[in-house]
Design brief:
The chain is an alpha+beta fold. The protein is 19% helix and 29% strand. It has one domain. The chain starts with 15 loop residues before the first strand and ends in a 21-residue tail after the last helix. 20% of the residues are buried.
Length: 195
């Protein structure tokens, strides 16, 4: 059996800081780990459009997988605290509704990994006075506990397979563990970042 690099001719977005807007949140349910030393985890995908354009005139889109956790060392918590430019309060940590992220602008620092793929290395708030990027894509939220067929069908086959597997695993584990109750947070409407 031979393995090779059959990379296509897709040009990734440029390296550097980009204005962006979060246009999607996809709940993948509980993903079973096949890597020794890693436990099963509830995963999500956050999706952004950035201000860099592809050859076809559309904006580049980029996404990042996260474990759905706000634990001290959790990547999601670190990313959101960087995006908010402030730490979470104790009440927020008791139940933060991540759906508020969809439609929120930010800055993304994009780098290229060792294979040349564009990846997000940091998320920060927009600088004061910078124009907010408006999404061109339809905003999408997929909550695995309240499936939305239209959003589901808009995902790639790989993501659909992950959602299906995650829903089964989530249902299996939900029998023994009740889900946390999200709390509504007060937000300052004048604040650029409503979370």
């Amino acid at each position: 059996m031979l393995a090779s690099d059959k990379g296509g001719d897709f040009t990734p977005c440029a390296v550097g800081m980009h204005g962006a807007v979060c246009y999607g949140l996809i709940d993948l349910g509980i993903q079973v780990s096949t890597i020794a030393g890693y436990s099963d985890a509830h995963k999500i995908i956050l999706k952004w459009e950035i201000d860099d354009m592809m050859d076809n005139g559309k904006r580049f889109m980029i996404s990042k997988f996260f474990t759905l956790s706000l634990g001290t060392k959790a990547n999601l918590r670190q990313a959101l605290e960087s995006w908010r430019a402030k730490p979470f309060t104790k009440p927020e940590l008791d139940g933060f509704d991540i759906e508020v992220l969809v439609g929120v602008p930010c800055m993304l620092n994009i780098i290229h990994n060792e294979t040349g793929k564009a990846v997000i290395s940091a998320i920060t708030p927009l600088p004061k006075g910078m124009e907010r990027l408006q999404p061109e894509n339809k905003l999408e939220i997929y909550d695995i506990t309240k499936p939305n067929k239209e959003v589901y069908e808009n995902q790639s086959d790989r993501i659909k397979e992950m959602i299906d597997a995650g829903a089964l695993e989530l249902a299996r584990k939900a029998e023994s563990t009740p889900p946390p109750t999200p709390q509504t947070l007060e937000t300052d409407l004048d604040d650029q970042i409503p979370f």
